[in-house]
Amino acid sequence: MAKHRSVFLQVSRKRMTLIMVIL
């Protein structure tokens, strides 16, 4: 479960970076 959570956080961080790049 902890591993899955870590992956989710990583994806969320990547998404935020993408949004920043788009902006």
Describe the main β-sheet briefly. none
Structural class call reads mainly alpha
What pattern of helices and strands is seen along the backbone? H
Which strand-content bin applies to the residues? under 5%
Shape category: rod-shaped
Distance between the termini: 33 Å
Q: Specify Rg, calculated over alpha carbons.
A: 10 Å
Explain what this protein looks like in three dimensions:
This protein is mainly alpha-helical. The chain contains one helix and no strands. It has one helix at residues 2-22. The model has no long low-confidence stretch (mean pLDDT 86).
Tell me briefly what this model is:
The protein has one helix spanning about 1-20. It has about 25 residues and is mainly α.
Layout of secondary structure:
Elements: H1 2-22
Core attributes:
23 residues, 1 helix, rod-shaped, mainly alpha
